[in-house]
Amino acid sequence: MAEGASEGQEKTEDPTQKRLEKAKEDGQVASSKELFVFSTLLVGLLLYIGLMPLMPSLLQEWSSLFSFAGQKGVMDEIYRNLGASFQFMFWKSVIFAIPLLIIVILTQMGMSGAINWSSSALAFKPNRINPLSGIKRMFSVKALVEMLKAIGKVTLLIGTALLVFMATIDALFTTPSTHLMGGLSRMGDVFLLLIIVFLLVLAAISVFDVIWSHYQHNEQLRMTLQEVKDESKQTEGSPEVKAKIRRMQMTAVSRAKERKAAMEAVPTATAIITNPTHFAVALKYEVGTEGAPMILAMGRGNQAQEIIEIGKDAGVTIFRNELLARALYFAGQIGDEIPGPLYTAVAAVLAFIYRLNNDEQVDPPDVDLPEDMRFDENGKVIS
Fold it and tell me: Is the torsion defined by CA of 370, 375, 379, 380 positive or negative?
């Protein structure tokens, strides 16, 4: 559904962190061939310069492999020297291979931020052997850019090589008293200069290629606005659901605050109406004031027990009447005046409590409620 919704939309949004991580898992990371060429050539040059003092001994060891005494048979010596030459080439190659391998790994880490091993990148992809897909890749913008990069690189390297040779040709062929070893030494100097110039050119090309690779990688991973929204829904949930959860959380917090404030107001109540324990409603009324009694707190079950305990500790009079307690609980609201149909019943109860608190001997009143104010424990009107 998400794919269909995003069809026809332009990919204008930068890739999200989840999209970047998914691409990295699939082996799709920014990479620069030119940076690899520059770094390996630089390390190779440094190794060459560092191993220059060892060259005479290496050449001597190499030349010894072509010396045959013939005392134990020429063929035996040939086979022995051949095996020794393979070992010589192998271990000397390792000296160059290990540093180059390390610099390749470090170069990729510099490009992608970490070593990335992806098994999915090694998986078989049928489109790679599809001729139509191959032709499409050959004539793509990426292929055109790669071709232009290759032409530009070759042009720059050939041009710089010609400039170096033109600048040093006089020193190579016109120096007085030129001899073989002196000529070879000067050619070595020119070769070293040429490598250094190549490195400078490749460094400039690498900077361009790294910038282009990161730009191209980012463009390939760009997302449509719908894809960003769908991903947000998958990771964080639907905005509608999140809004509903926030509303429920805010309501719960608000109710908790109201309940706390109501419980703190219970000690100031005039009376607590119970039935006798399942429901409890705390009322407040001051004689001579305008308006009806106000509901300070109410609850059922454990909350009702808490209201009763707080009221007892504060010396609040508790009046037990099952129907009145239910009517106040189901028809009233905390912080509001009691419902109008209950004025008469509550007034009778408060008058009884007032006289009781004044040490008068009075009988409990007969509380009569309207038919529509008689509730059962579930809040349904008793018929």
Answer: negative
What distance in Å separates the CA atoms of residue 352 and residue 362, rounded to the nearest whole number? 7
Cα–Cα distance, 214 to 193 (Å, whole number): 32
Sign for the pseudo-dihedral over CA of 145, 148, 154, 159: negative
- Look at residue 283 in the predicted model and tell me its pLDDT: 92
At residue 290, what is the residue type?
E
Q: Is the pLDDT of residue 138 over 60?
A: yes
Q: Which amino acid is at 246?
A: R
Average pLDDT for 236-262? 77
The Cα angle at residue 208 between residues 206 and 210, in degrees rounded to 5: 65
Domains of the chain with bracketed CATH: 23-115 (no CATH), 127-222 (no CATH), 263-373 (3.40.1690.10)
Average pLDDT, the chain: 79
Q: What DSSP designation does 11 have?
A: -
Q: Kindly state the tokens that stand for 178.
A: 């030129």
Provide the CB-side half-sphere exposure for 300 (13 A, CA). Answer: 11
Residue 283's alpha-carbon distances to 97, 262, 273, 333, in angstroms, are: 89, 11, 8, 11
Summarize pLDDT for 283-303 with one digit per residue, the tens: 998 877 788 899 999 988 888
Angle between helices 33-51 and 74-112 (to 10 degrees): 130
Q: Check residue 273 and give its pLDDT.
A: 92
Q: By percentage, how much of the chain surpasses pLDDT 90?
A: 11
String of DSSP letters for 327-346: HHHHH--TTSBPPGGGHHHH
